[in-house]
C-alpha cells in the first residue's frame, strides 16, 4: 500500500536550535544515514513549545541549498563593482587564510582602525568583539540600529531591559504600534504566535496602528492606519486625553515608582539639595525636601511651586504643560487618525488598565494593569526615534503598567536578566548600552560610525555613508582600506547604496565569511564559507520573552561542503595575524569571565569550538553542565519566575523625567564646543518627548508627496531568505509580496494598475518596481515588503521581483536621531509610472 | 474505527504558512506542489479592510469524488477515513484531479522530480523523492505514516497558534465534535456533496 | 464589508476560480476522435459501407487510444484503468473500447480480407450487436466521464453525454458524407437530412445546456459567463456556433443544390472544427469552485 518510504522509524532526533532568524527556537532534527530529513519544534523547550514558524520549517532548504558556497574561493577578476562577476576560483583553506591574514595583517600593522567590520550574527553576539581584538572600533552595517537604534537605549534606561513585550498571559487590551509581535516578526515568532493566539482566545482585544494592514492589523479587533512616523502624535494625543481631559492616570505608580514627582527647574534640571539630592514637594510641609525625606503619601505629583523665588514644577507637571496643546485635534492633523479615534482608544486603554487593581501571584501581591501598548521597528525607527520610544514608554507609565502583571514587560538581552543597578536619587541606573560599554567622547573620533559621539545611542552604522566619503569633515584622521563581512549584508541593509558602493570601490581588500553570495560578498576578494546553523555550535539565549536559559545549537550532520564554523574562522585569522591572545582577552570580557576568574580563557591557548562553548556553558550553569550536558539535554530553558519578570527594579524608581538625557546632551555640547564643532545637531537630547516634525515630514515641502515604508512578514528573515525557493515560492503567491503596495484610491488617482512599472524617487535615490494595488495600506503610503528588497541574488525567481528599498533612505545626520543615532527608515517619495 | 479529520480555527490562524512549510519538509513534495496551503484574500475597502487566511488541505472526504472517479482503484479510502493513493496502481489519468473540487490532487508530471536546484537532487530530496513516481498522482495523506505511529500530522504539531486540531471526527465526546458544535463549524463547498472531514471555525 | 470581485486564480493559494488544466488537448483529441470514429462506424455499419466502417474503426482504435496513451502518466499500466467498471466511467469506457476493438475487427475482417473470414450467422449477429452497442457507448461515455468529475461544475449535467452523443452522430454523418463524396459513391438520401437535422438539434441542445448552466453552481455560471462574454466568447460564437453549426448548415443547404467536392470538404472542415472546438472549450473552460466559496461568500465578507 502507498505508505511513504520516509517514515521516521530508525532515525535519530538531535536536539538543537533554529538559526533561521536571530531568535533561536528549540528544535529537534531527524537524521537518517547522515541526511537531515526533518526539523520539528522541541516540545520540551518552553520558548517555542514545539512550534516553528515557516522559516524554521524551511531550515533544511538552507542546509542543502544548491546555491550555497561550499569551498573557499578567491576572486580572479580584479575589477569590482555591482553586477561584475568576481570570477571566483576555488582555493584551499590554507591559501584562503594565508591571503586574508597577509592582507588584513598589513592593515593591522599600519592602523587597525582601517578595517571596517560588518558582523551581524545576533545568535553569536559573543563573537562581535573580534574587531576590538583586531583593534578596529568600526561598525559598517545597519543592523540593530535600523530597528533598535533608539529602542534598546530607552528600554535599558527605563528598566534595564533590552526589549519589551506586553504580558501575553494577563493583558486584556493590547495596542500594537508598528510591530509584528505575536503575528509575524520580532521576538521569537513561533512561540509568541501561540501566546498571542491564546490571549486573543481568552478575549484580549488587539488594536493595531500601522500604515499597512499587517498580519497584526488583519487579526486585530481594530486596525488604525496612520501616516508613517506619526505614531508618536497619536500616542501624545492619547496622553493629552488621559492627563488633560479624563484626568485618569496611575498617580500612585507615578508618585512612588518613578521620578515624576521630582522637582524640575526652568533650565530642565532637577532642583537639588546642597548635597546634590533631587528634591520633591512635601505637601504636608508645603516645602521642597530631598526626595528621600518626603513621606510616601506626601509627595506632590502635580503642581508648580515657588522655591527661592524661582518657579519649579514636578516632572509630571512639566510634561502636563508640554502636552497642553497636543490635543487630539492637532495630533489628528499630523497622523490622519481622527481625533475621535484617539479619544476613544485613550478611554478604552485607561478603562482596561484597571488602575488601582492588584493581583496575587504565587503568594505575592502585585499591581494588576491588564492594558499595554507594545511597539517596535516600524513605529520608532525614525529620526525622532528617541521621542517615539519615550512616548510609548510613558503612555504605559501613565497607567502604571511597567513590568507589572498584565502590563508592558521588559525583556532582557539574555540569561543575565535585567541590568538593575542603583543609580542616583533612588533610581535605577540607566543602561542605554548593553552590547558594549558606552564609549567616551573623542575628537578626532576613532570610529567611522562616530560611536564616540553617541553616548546613549546604539551604533549608527548608516553614518558611514557620510563619514567615509568625506572623512576630514568629521575629523577622521585615517581612511579605511579593508572590510570584513560576517553574517551581514551592508550593501543591502545600509541606506544610500550608491554611496556604499563608492566606499566599497575604495577598499583594497574585502573578505566575506558567509554561506552564500550576496550584494556584499560580490565585492569580496576572498570568500570563507561558513557552516549553516545545522552544522555548527553555539549556546543561544537572545531576547527571549517569557523564558530564560540557553539552548544548544549543535551540528546535526557532517558539513555539506568544505565549510568551517565562524568561531574557528575568526580564531584562525586572529592566530595567523598574531592576536589570538587579545582575542581570548576580549572573549574573557564579553563572556563575563573577568568576573569569574575560574573560567578565564588562557590567552596562550587555542580553544576549539567545542572547548569554547563548553567553557561558556560551565561558566553559566556550573561545571556539571558543560557542552556534554547540553548535547544530551538540548537546552536549559525555563519560564522566568514572577520575581524575575515583575518589577525587577525592586524599590528603585524608574525615570519618567529623563534628566540624564538632557545632561548627556549638555555634556556633548560642551565637548563639541571644546573641539570647535559648533553645528553638530544635539536637539534631541530632551528630558521629555513632544511633537516636532521630522525631516521626512518636512520633505513634503520639496515635492515629495508620498511616504514609502518597508516591512517584514513571517515567511522571511529580512530579504535574506527570499533566495530560498521553499519560502519564496510561497511568498510570491501573497499579494503583499507581489510588488510595491499602493492603495486602490491612490492607484486610481495616478492611473496605475497592478503590474505597472513604477518609480519611487526620494531625496536620496530612486527605485523601480511593479505596482501591486491593494486596499490595506494608507492612501499616502507605498509599501515595499522586505521580501522584494534584494537586487543581487543567486536565484532567478527572486531576481525579477527585486526592488531595493534602502536606496530611498538617507544616512546623514538630518535623517538620524541626534541623541541615539537611530536611523530614519521611512522615506518621502515622488511616484512616476515608468513606460516600458 | 476512528474517522480522522481536522478542525481549523480561523480565529487563531494568522496565515503564517508554517503548515505549508511543515508539510513541504515532512513530505518533500516537488517544486510547486503544496498539500497544505493558505488561501489569502483581502476583503473590504479601505479603511474597513481585512486580510483573511484560509488554510486548506485534503478534506479526506467521506464521499470522496476523487476515489469515486479513479478507474484503477489507486485512490482508496482507508478504514480510518484517510484518502490515499497507491502509486503502484496509478496510471496518471488525472480523473481524480478534475474530480476534486478543492484542487487537492497533484500530478507528478515528467521532469518534476529533478529537485529545486539545477544540478540534481540534494541528499534530502534523493531520499524524499523515493516516495514519488513520475506520471502518478499525489496528495495529502493526512500524514498517515505519522498517524500510524500515533503521531499527529506535521502541519498540526507545528502550527504556531494551535489553530489546527487533529483527531477522530466521529467521536461524539471528542474534541473535534465539541469544537464544531460549540463554534458552529462548517466545511468547504458543501454544495459539492463531498462530506469533508476538515472543519472550519469562524474568525 | 463588501466583497471584492472574484477573478480567476492563477495558483492554488489564491482565492478565485481556478482553471481546469489537468485534462489538456490530448484528452480533447481523444474525446473528439472517439465520438467521431464511433459515430462514423455506426452510420457506416447501418448503411453497409465498408470504407466508412474501416475509417471509423481506425479513428477509434488507433486515434483515440493513441491520444489516451500519450496522455497517461503511466501508459504501461493502462490496463489498470479497466479495474473499476462498477463505479468509473473511464473503466466502463475501456471495456467498451475493448469490446469495440474485437467486435469491430470481427465485422471488418471478412469485408476487407474476404468472405473466408466470415463468422457463422449468429456469431456475426452477436458481433454486430456488440459493435453497435459499444460504439454507441463510445459516442457518449466521455460525457459521463466528464460528468462524474464533480470538481468542474460546468460538466455536472446529464446533458453532456447527450450532447456528445449528438455531436458524435453529427461528426459521423459529416465524415460519412465526405468519404462517399471523395470515393464518388452514391449518398443515401437520409444522410443529408440527418446532417441538417442534427445541426439544428445540436444548436438547440447547446442552448438548453447553457440555459441549464445558468441555474447551476457559481463556478458553472462563471464558465457560462466566460463563454458568452469572456475569454471563450470568440471561439464559442465564432467557431462552435458560426462555423461549426451555422456555416455548416448553410453550406450543406447550398451543397444539396450545387454538387462540388471542394464544397463537401469545406463543410467537413467547418463541422469538424466546430465539433473539436466545442470539446476543447468544454474542457478548457472548466472551473473549480472558488477555494473558499463557502468560507467567505456565504458569510457575507
Ligand atoms: N519574520 C521575521 N521576524 C523577524 C525578522 C525578520 O526579518 N523576519 N527580523 C528580526 C529583527 S532584526 C527585527 S528588528 C524585528 C523587527 O520586527 P518588527 O518591528 O515587528 O518588524 P517590521 O516589519 O520591520 O515593522 C513592523 C511594522 O511596522 C510597520 N511600519 C512601517 N513604518 C511604520 C510607521 O511609521 N509607523 C507604524 N506604526 N508602523 C510602521 C510595518 O508595516 C510593519 O508591519 O523582527 C525580528 N524578527
Ligand atoms: N529594506 C529593509 N532593510 C532592512 C530592514 C528592513 O526591514 N527592510 N531591516 C533592518 C534590520 S531591523 C536589520 S537587523 C538589518 C539586518 O541586516 P543583516 O545584518 O544584513 O541581516 P542578517 O540576516 O543578519 O545577515 C544577512 C547575511 O547573513 C548571511 N548568513 C545567513 N546565515 C548565515 C550563517 O549561518 N553563517 C554566516 N556566516 N552567514 C550567514 C546571509 O547570507 C547574509 O549575507 O537589516 C535592516 N535592513
Ligand atoms: S522564530 Fe526564528 S528561531 Fe523561531 S522557528 Fe522561526 S526562524 Fe526559527
Ligand atoms: S500554521 Fe497554523 S496559524 Fe499558520 S497558517 Fe497554518 S493553520 Fe494558520
Ligand atoms: S478533498 Fe479532494 S482529494 Fe481530498 S478526499 Fe476530497 S475530493 Fe479527494
Ligand atoms: S491519476 Fe491515478 S489516482 Fe488519479 S484517478 Fe487516475 S489512476 Fe486514479
Ligand atoms: S496532514 Fe500531513 S500531508 Fe496533509 S497537509 Fe498536513 S502535513 Fe501535509
Ligand atoms: Mo533588526
Strand content of chain A: 15-25%
Q: Which whole number gives the mean pLDDT of chain B? A: 96
Averaged pLDDT of chain A: 95
Low-confidence stretches of chain B: none
In angstroms, what separates the terminal alpha carbons of chain B? 32 Å
Question: Structural class per helix/strand content of chain B?
Answer: alpha+beta
Helix content of chain B: 10-25%
Instruction: Give the largest interface.
Output: A-B, 73 and 62 residues
Distance between the termini of chain A: 55 Å
Largest sheet of chain B: 3 strands, mixed
Q: Taking Cα atoms only, what radius of gyration of chain A do you get, to the nearest Å?
A: 26 Å
User: What is the helix tally of chain A?
Assistant: 27
Our estimate of the beta-strand percent of chain B is: 15-25%
Radius of gyration of chain B: 17 Å
Q: What are the distinct ligands in this entry?
A: ligand MGD, iron/sulfur cluster, molybdenum atom
Could you describe the 3D structure shown?
The complex is a heterotrimer of chains A (836), B (203) and C (301). With 836 residues, chain A is of the alpha/beta class. Chain A has 27 helices and 32 strands. A 6-stranded mixed beta sheet of chain A has the order 5-4-22-21-20-6, covered by helices on one side. Chain A has a 6-stranded mixed beta sheet with strand order 28-30-29-32-27-31. Mean pLDDT of chain A is 95; it is low at 1-9. In chain B, the strands form 4 sheets. Chain B has a 3-stranded mixed beta sheet with strand order 8-1-9. In chain B, a hairpin with a 5-residue loop joins strand 4 (75-77) and strand 5. Chain B has 7 helices and 9 strands. Chain B is of the alpha+beta class. Chain B is globular. The longest helix of chain B is centred in the N-terminal third of the chain and has 10 residues, at 18-27. Helices cover 21% and strands 20% of the residues of chain B. Chain C is an all-alpha fold and 301 residues long. Chain C is built from 10 helices and 3 strands, in the order ββαααααααααβα. Chain C has a 3-stranded mixed beta sheet, covered by helices on one side. In chain C, helix 1 crosses helix 9 (261-284), helix 2 packs antiparallel against helix 3 and helix 6 packs antiparallel against helix 8 (233-255). Chain A binds chain C through residues 730, 733-734, 775, and chain C through 4, 11, 13-14. The structure holds ligand MGD (2 copies), iron/sulfur cluster (5 copies) and molybdenum atom. One iron/sulfur cluster (SF4) is lined by residues 18, 20-21, 23-25, 48, 52-53, 55-56, 188-190 of chain A.
Amino acid at each position: 500500500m502507498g505508505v511513504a518510504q520516509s517514515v521516521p522509524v530508525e532515525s535519530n532526533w538531535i536536539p538543537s536550535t533554529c538559526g533561521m532568524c536571530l531568535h533561536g527556537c528549540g528544535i529537534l532534527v531527524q537524521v537518517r544515514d547522515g541526511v537531515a530529513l526533518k526539523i520539528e519544534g522541541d516540545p520540551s523547550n518552553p520558548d517555542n513549545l514545539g512550534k516553528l514558524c515557516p522559516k524554521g520549517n524551511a531550515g533544511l532548504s538552507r542546509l542543502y541549498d544548491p546555491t550555497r558556497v561550499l569551498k573557499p574561493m578567491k576572486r580572479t577578476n580584479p575589477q569590482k563593482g555591482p553586477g561584475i562577476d568576481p570570477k571566483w576560483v576555488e582555493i584551499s583553506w590554507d591559501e584562503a587564510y594565508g591571503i586574508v591574514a597577509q592582507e588584513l595583517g598589513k592593515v593591522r600593522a599600519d592602523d587597525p582602525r582601517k578595517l571596517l567590520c560588518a558582523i551581524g550574527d545576533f545568535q553569536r553576539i559573543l563573537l562581535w568583539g573580534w574587531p576590538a581584538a583586531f583593534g578596529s572600533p568600526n561598525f559598517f552595517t545597519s543592523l540593530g540600529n535600523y530597528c533598535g537604534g533608539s529602542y534598546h537605549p530607552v528600554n535599558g534606561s527605563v528598566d534595564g531591559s533590552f526589549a519589551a513585550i506586553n504580558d501575553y498571559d494577563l493583558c486584556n487590551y493590547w495596542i500594537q504600534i508598528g510591530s509584528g509581535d505575536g503575528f509575524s516578526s520580532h521576538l521569537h515568532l513561533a512561540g509568541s504566535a501561540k501566546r498571542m493566539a491564546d490571549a486573543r482566545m481568552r478575549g484580549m482585544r488587539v488594536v493595531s496602528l500601522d500604515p499597512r494592514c499587517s498580519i497584526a492589523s488583519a487579526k486585530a479587533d481594530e486596525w488604525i492606519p496612520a501616516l508613517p512616523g506619526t505614531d508618536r502624535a497619536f500616542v501624545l494625543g492619547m496622553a493629552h486625553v488621559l492627563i488633560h481631559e479624563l484626568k485618569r492616570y496611575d498617580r500612585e505608580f507615578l508618585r512612588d515608582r518613578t521620578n515624576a514627582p521630582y522637582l524640575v527647574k526652568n533650565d530642565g534640571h532637577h532642583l537639588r539639595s546642597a548635597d546634590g539630592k533631587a528634591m520633591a514637594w512635601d505637601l504636608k510641609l508645603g516645602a521642597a525636601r530631598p526626595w528621600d525625606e518626603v513621606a510616601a503619601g506626601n509627595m506632590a505629583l502635580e503642581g508648580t511651586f515657588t522655591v527661592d523665588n524661582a518657579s519649579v514644577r514636578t516632572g509630571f507637571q512639566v510634561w502636563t504643560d508640554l502636552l497642553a496643546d497636543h490635543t487630539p485635534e492637532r495630533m489628528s492633523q499630523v497622523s490622519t487618525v481622527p481625533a475621535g479615534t484617539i479619544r476613544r482608544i485613550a478611554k478604552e486603554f485607561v478603562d482596561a488598565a484597571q488602575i488601582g487593581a492588584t493581583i496575587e501571584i504565587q503568594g505575592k501581591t502585585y499591581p494588576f494593569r491588564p492594558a499595554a501598548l507594545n511597539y517596535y521597528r516600524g513605529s520608532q525607527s525614525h529620526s525622532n526615534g528617541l521621542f517615539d520610544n519615550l512616548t510609548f514608554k510613558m503612555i504605559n507609565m501613565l497607567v502604571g503598567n511597567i513590568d507589572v502583571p498584565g502590563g508592558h514587560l521588559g525583556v532582557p538581552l539574555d540569561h543575565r536578566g535585567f541590568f538593575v543597578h542603583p543609580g542616583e536619587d533612588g533610581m535605577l541606573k540607566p543602561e542605554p548600552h548593553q552590547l558594549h560599554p558606552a564609549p567616551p567622547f573623542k575628537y578626532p573620533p576613532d570610529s567611522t560610525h562616530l560611536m564616540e559621539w553617541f553616548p546613549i545611542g546604539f551604533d549608527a552604522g548608516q553614518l558611514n555613508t557620510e563619514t567615509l566619503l568625506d572623512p576630514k569633515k568629521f575629523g577622521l584622521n585615517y581612511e579605511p582600506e579593508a572590510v570584513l563581512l560576517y553574517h551581514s549584508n551592508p550593501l543591502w541593509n545600509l541606506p544610500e547604496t550608491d554611496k556604499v558602493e563608492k566606499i566599497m570601490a575604495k577598499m583594497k581588500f574585502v573578505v566575506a565569511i558567509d554561506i552564500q553570495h550576496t550584494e556584499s560578498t560580490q565585492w569580496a576578494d576572498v570568500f570563507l564559507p561558513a557552516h549553516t546553523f545545522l552544522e555548527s555550535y553555539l549556546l543561544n539565549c537572545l531576547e527571549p520573552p517569557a523564558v530564560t536559559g540557553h539552548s544548544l545549537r549543535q551540528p546535526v550532520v557532517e558539513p555539506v561542503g568544505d565549510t568551517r564554523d565562524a568561531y574557528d574562522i575568526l580564531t584562525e585569522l586572529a592566530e595567523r595575524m598574531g592576536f589570538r591572545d587579545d582575542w581570548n582577552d576580549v572573549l574573557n570580557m564579553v563572556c563575563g569571565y573577568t568576573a569569574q576568574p575560574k573560567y578565564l580563557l588562557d590567552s596562550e591557548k587555542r580553544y576549539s569550538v567545542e572547548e569554547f562553548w563548553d567553557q561558556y556553558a560551565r561558566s553559566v550553569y556550573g561545571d556539571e553542565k558543560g557542552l556534554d550536558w547540553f548535547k544530551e539535554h538540548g537546552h536549559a530553558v525555563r519560564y522566568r519566575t514572577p520575581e524575575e519578570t515583575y518589577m525587577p527594579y525592586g524599590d528603585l524608581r524608574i525615570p519618567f523625567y529623563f534628566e540624564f538625557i538632557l545632561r548627556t546632551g549638555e555634556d556633548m555640547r560642551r565637548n563639541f564646543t571644546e573641539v570647535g564643532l559648533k553645528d553638530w545637531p544635539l536637539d534631541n537630547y530632551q528630558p521629555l518627548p513632544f511633537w516636532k516634525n521630522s525631516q521626512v515630514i518636512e520633505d513634503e515641502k520639496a515635492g515629495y508627496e508620498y511616504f514609502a515604508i518597508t516591512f517584514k512578514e513571517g515567511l522571511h528573515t529580512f530579504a535574506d531568505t527570499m533566495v530560498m525557493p521553499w519560502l519564496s515560492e510561497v511568498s510570491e503567491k501573497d499579494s503583499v509580496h507581489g510588488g510595491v503596495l499602493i492603495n486602490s484610491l491612490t492607484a486610481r488617482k495616478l492611473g496605475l494598475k497592478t503590474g505597472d512599472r513604477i518609480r519611487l524617487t526620494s531625496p536620496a535615490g530612486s527605485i523601480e518596481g511593479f505596482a501591486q494595488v491593494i486596499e490595506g495600506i494608507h492612501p499616502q503610503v507605498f509599501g515595499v515588503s522586505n521580501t522584494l528588497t534584494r537586487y543581487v541574488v543567486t536565484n532567478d525567481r527572486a531576481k525579477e521581483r527585486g526592488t531595493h528599498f534602502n536606496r530611498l533612505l538617507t544616512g546623514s545626520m538630518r535623517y538620524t536621531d541626534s541623541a541615539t543615532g537611530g536611523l530614519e527608515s521611512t522615506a518621502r517619495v515622488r511616484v512616476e509610472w515608468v513606460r516600458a | 474505527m476512528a474517522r480522522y479529520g481536522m478542525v481549523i480555527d480561523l480565529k487563531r490562524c494568522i496565515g503564517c504558512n508554517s503548515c505549508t512549510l511543515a508539510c513541504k519538509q515532512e513530505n518533500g513534495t516537488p517544486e510547486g506542489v503544496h498539500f497544505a496551503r493558505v488561501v489569502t484574500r483581502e476583503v473590504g475597502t479601505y479603511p474597513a479592510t481585512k486580510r483573511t487566511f484560509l488554510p486548506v488541505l485534503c478534506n479526506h472526504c467521506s464521499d470522496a469524488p476523487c476515489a469515486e472517479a479513479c478507474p484503477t482503484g489507486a485512490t482508496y479510502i482507508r478504514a480510518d477515513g484517510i484518502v490515499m493513493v497507491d502509486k503502484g496502481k496509478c496510471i496518471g489519468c488525472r480523473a481524480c484531479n478534475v474530480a476534486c473540487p478543492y484542487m487537492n490532487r497533484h500530478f507528478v508530471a515528467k521532469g518534476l522530480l529533478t529537485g529545486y536546484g539545477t544540478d540534481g537532487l540534494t541528499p534530502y530530496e534523493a531520499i524524499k523523492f523515493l516516495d514519488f513516481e513520475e506520471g502518478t498522482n499525489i496528495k495529502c495523506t493526512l500524514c498517515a505514516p505519522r498517524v500510524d505511529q500515533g503521531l499527529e500530522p506535521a502541519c498540526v504539531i507545528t502550527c504556531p497558534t494551535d489553530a489546527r486540531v487533529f483527531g477522530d471526527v466521529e467521536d461524539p465526546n471528542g474534541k473535534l465534535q465539541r469544537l464544531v458544535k460549540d463554534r458552529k463549524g462548517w466545511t468547504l463547498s458543501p454544495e459539492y456533496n463531498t462530506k469533508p472531514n476538515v472543519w472550519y471555525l469562524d474568525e | 464589508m463588501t466583497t471584492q470581485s472574484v477573478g480567476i486564480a492563477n495558483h492554488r493559494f489564491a482565492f478565485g476560480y481556478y482553471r481546469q488544466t489537468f485534462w489538456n488537448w490530448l484528452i480533447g483529441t481523444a474525446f473528439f476522435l472517439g465520438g467521431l470514429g464511433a459515430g462514423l462506424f455506426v452510420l457506416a455499419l447501418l448503411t453497409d459501407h465498408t470504407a466508412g466502417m474501416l475509417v471509423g474503426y481506425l479513428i477509434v482504435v488507433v486515434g483515440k487510444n493513441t491520444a489516451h496513451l500519450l496522455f497517461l502518466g503511466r501508459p504501461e499500466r493502462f490496463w489498470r484503468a479497466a479495474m473499476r467498471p462498477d463505479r468509473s466511467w473511464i473503466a466502463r469506457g475501456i471495456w467498451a473500447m475493448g469490446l469495440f476493438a474485437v467486435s469491430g475487427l470481427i465485422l471488418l475482417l471478412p469485408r476487407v480480407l474476404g468472405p473466408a473470414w466470415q463468422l457463422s450467422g449468429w456469431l456475426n449477429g452477436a458481433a454486430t450487436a456488440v459493435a453497435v452497442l459499444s460504439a454507441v457507448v463510445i459516442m457518449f461515455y466521455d460525457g459521463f466521464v466528464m460528468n462524474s468529475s464533480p470538481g468542474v461544475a460546468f460538466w455536472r449535467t446529464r446533458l453532456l453525454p447527450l450532447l456528445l452523443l449528438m455531436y458524435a452522430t453529427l461528426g459521423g454523418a459529416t465524415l460519412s458524407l465526405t468519404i462517399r463524396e471523395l470515393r464518388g459513391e452514391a449518398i443515401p438520401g437520409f444522410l443529408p437530412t440527418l446532417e441538417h437535422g442534427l445541426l439544428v438539434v445540436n444548436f438547440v441542445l447547446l442552448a438548453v445546456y447553457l440555459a441549464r448552466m445558468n441555474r447551476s453552481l457559481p463556478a458553472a455560471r462563471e464558465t457560462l459567463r466566460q463563454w458568452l462574454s469572456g475569454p471563450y466568447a470568440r471561439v464559442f460564437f465564432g467557431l462552435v456556433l458560426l462555423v461549426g453549426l451555422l456555416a455548416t448548415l448553410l453550406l450543406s443547404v447550398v451543397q444539396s443544390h450545387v454538387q462540388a467536392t471542394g464544397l463537401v470538404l469545406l463543410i467537413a472542415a467547418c463541422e469538424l472544427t466546430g465539433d473539436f472546438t466545442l470539446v476543447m472549450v468544454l474542457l478548457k473552460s472548466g472551473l473549480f469552485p472558488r477555494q473558499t466559496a463557502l468560507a467567505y461568500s456565504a458569510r457575507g465578507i
